[in-house]
Amino acid sequence: RKNYHRHTAEQIRIMEALFKESPHPDERQRQQVSKQLGLSARQVKFWFQNRRTQIKERHENSLLKSELEKLQDEHRAMRELAKKPSRCLNCGVVATSSDAAAAATAADTREQRLRLEKAKLKAEVCMPPPRSRA
Questions:
Q1: What confidence category does residue 64 fall into, taking pLDDT thresholds of 50, 70 and 90?
Q2: 108: how many CB neighbours lie within 10 A of its CB?
Q3: Residue 16 belongs to a domain with what CATH number?
Q4: What interhelical angle do 27-37 and 9-21 show, nearest 10?
Q5: What is the pLDDT of residue 43?
Q6: Cα–Cα distance between 46 and 4 in angstroms, integer?
Q7: What distance in Å separates the CA atoms of residue 59 and residue 56, rounded to the nearest whole number?
């Protein structure tokens, strides 16, 4: 088994520049870059594949974070509403404290579900993708 080695900063800089122009270089472009950088065409191919995966995962992670923030804001607002006594829109009767307690319990249950879902999503994002054999 060959030793693991990282690419040099210069190799990465050149591949990043090409990546900005073309995230999916063709065989000719990969061959050209591999000669220029002293790497095998396979190394270049896998660098681009890994870079595309990394970009995609970061984008998905960003979407999940914004969704989580939105849900947390919604949750905070619902908890604040649950704390306040509410008045029935039809008859005007003020809800009792036991009604408020029931609403708070429901909010706690929803919070637990959200925490579980967050943990599952976090595990999915952190879990490395299955390796494909190329």
A1: very high
A2: 12
A3: 1.10.10.60
A4: 160
A5: 96
A6: 14
A7: 5
